[in-house]
Specification:
Number of helices: 3
Order of helices and strands: HHH
Oligomer: single chain
Number of strands: 0
Shape: elongated
Length: 76
């Protein structure tokens, strides 16, 4: 979920690790990582947007078949 050639601060890594357990709640993940409550969400979004998208893409890929099957079941 992280780029191999990029060095992350401990706080950034804590944020990335917290994002899935927080179900994508950016503010909650920032709080867990220890960002100040005054730090705007756009700060972390600008800083780690590629990593956030990668996490989301992996989540979608991992659940695509279940989602498609559920939709098919509802239609039937």
């Amino acid at each position: 979920m992280v780029k191999k050639d990029k060095v992350y601060t401990e706080q950034q890594q804590l944020f990335l690790d917290a994002l899935l357990p927080c179900k994508g709640n950016i503010r909650q993940a920032m709080d867990i990582a220890g960002f100040s409550s005054g730090t705007p969400e756009r700060y972390i979004l600008n800083l780690l947007h590629e990593e956030i998208v990668e996490i989301a893409n992996k989540l979608i890929a991992g659940n695509a078949i279940k989602a498609a099957q559920s939709i098919s079941d509802v239609l039937d």
